[in-house]
DNA sequence: TTATAAAACTTTAAGCTTGAAATAATTTCT
DNA sequence: AGAAATTATTTCAAGCTTAAAGTTTTATAA
């Protein structure tokens, strides 16, 4: 997935783009993961879940989290389990539908996340420092448009 | 890692870019993983290792693979173990330095990879279909330049 | 030479990830 | 109402991933 095209030819430019895209995100991801571990003793998946919940004080269902984060249901179960055991998140059974539970950040979780998110934003700014703000906006637009075309189709 | 900025402000554009980048690569990666599984009963990590080896008939050391693929040593050990047990790869002890071993594709592995790689390239072309070849080249250039600036530093 | 350090790998423990199977609760259909 | 399908979630097995610790071999140096 990270190696270059095995030969030249048409369509190779998109393959090259994909490889670049993947290497870039893996490299940045690795760096962020390492810093999250070192500075805050946490992980990317935990950070992801907390970031999702931070925007929605009323909480999210497990399936909302799963959809939003683009990961499987079972995956979210495990991560939330660990966050609960650390007191950063709660699972509240609901009256209306007893299959579901609302997942929310605790006060601790919220404070904790705010601190981590601030550092995180700084890191991303640093790691993407050579991309101008203007260029960043353009790239973002390109990525946004190409994604929506095929994803979520059936 | 996949949620948006928690507030507005300066530096947010790079954060937005990072989130787009990550969502894009996760979405594409998930699609490719699924197809590799369904069509060829293999995985992305196996494909990555085989792609790396395919370019180098004389083989690679474990540490070369690890460096090239941006993953840890122990990780490569496990993946190569499985590829060996499937007969797609061999580990050849070396006379010169008995700590190391050369990892090579077997003939089976090589044939198998060629078929998978052809399909893979088609998929990537399809998934990135809305990006023109020209745009792909420009994006690739941007990604290349911003990466090299901080990665591999000390 | 012989201790010491360095290098190349492997092993291990903990956690992440998926897809599939299992549970439980709710909805839909007849 | 009762059966059947759907929905929300958890559990499970297998595999991926890392960092850290351990092993073996090679290089360095006193």
Overview of this structure, please?
- 2 copies of one chain form a homodimer.
- Chain A has 154 residues and is mainly alpha-helical.
- Chain A has one domain (16-143): Orthogonal Bundle (Arc Repressor Mutant, subunit A), CATH 1.10.10.10.
- Helix content of chain A is 64%, strand content 8%.
- Chain A has a 3-stranded antiparallel β-sheet with strand order 1-3-2.
- In chain A, β2 (89-93) and β3 (101-105) form a beta hairpin.
- At the A-B interface, α1, α2, α5 and α6 of A face α1, α2, α5 and α6 of B.
- The structure holds a DNA duplex (30 and 30 nucleotides).
What's the helix and strand layout?
Two copies of one chain form a homodimer.
Chain A: H1 12-40, H2 44-54, E1 60-61, H3 62-69, H4 73-85, E2 89-93, E3 101-105, H5 107-127, H6 133-148
Antiparallel strand pairs in A: 1-3, 2-3
Chain A binds a DNA duplex (30 and 30 nucleotides) through helix 1, helix 3 and helix 4.
């Amino acid at each position: 997935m990270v190696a270059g095209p095995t030969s030249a030819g048409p369509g190779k430019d998109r393959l090259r783009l994909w490889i670049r895209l993947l290497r870039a995100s893996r490299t940045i991801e690795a760096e962020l993961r390492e810093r999250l571990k070192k500075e805050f003793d946490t992980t990317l998946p935990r950070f992801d879940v907390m970031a999702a919940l931070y925007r929605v004080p009323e909480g999210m269902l497990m399936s909302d989290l799963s959809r939003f984060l683009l990961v499987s249901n079972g995956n979210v179960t495990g991560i939330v389990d660990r966050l609960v055991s650390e007191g950063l998140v709660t699972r509240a059974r609901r009256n209306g539908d007893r299959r579901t539970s609302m997942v929310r950040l605790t006060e601790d979780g919220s404070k904790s996340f705010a601190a981590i998110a601030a550092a995180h934003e700084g890191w991303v700014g640093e790691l993407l420092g050579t991309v101008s703000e203007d260029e960043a906006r353009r790239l973002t637009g390109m990525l946004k448009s190409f994604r929506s075309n095929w994803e979520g189709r059936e």
